[in-house]
Design brief:
With 108 residues, the protein is mostly helical. It is built from 6 helices and no strands.
Length: 108
């Protein structure tokens, strides 16, 4: 992963607050801006992308925003075959990730 899980979580929240609330970006544009900030790195991975989506969904839910536009992607990420891969890659950060992941699954 490019950043630690907690760092990604904070970056997603900060980007949401600044781009959506200060500069009035659409939610879709905020998400694309967040992903665009990292996806040019050669080490950007599916885990980085998933962490962004999971945390963006949580931020939107907590702020009573509609996140229907990312539900399919979240469901795709949640398929069981991927969880073992995430566990291997996230190591000690997996517990925090899985807690957030379960929250997202509940609100889908």
């Amino acid at each position: 992963m490019l950043l630690k899980y907690r760092e990604f979580k904070e970056a997603v929240y900060d980007s949401y607050k600044s781009l959506h609330h200060k500069f009035y970006y659409t939610l879709e544009d905020v998400l694309f801006a967040i992903i665009g900030e990292y996806d040019f790195h050669k080490n950007f991975s599916q885990i980085d992308e998933m962490v962004i989506y999971i945390n963006f969904a949580l931020v939107l839910f907590e702020n009573q925003e509609n996140f229907d536009f990312i539900k399919e992607k979240l469901i795709e990420f949640g398929k069981g075959k991927n969880l073992e891969y995430y566990k291997e890659e996230l190591k000690e950060e997996f517990e925090e990730f899985i807690c957030d992941f379960r929250k997202v699954k509940e609100i889908l």
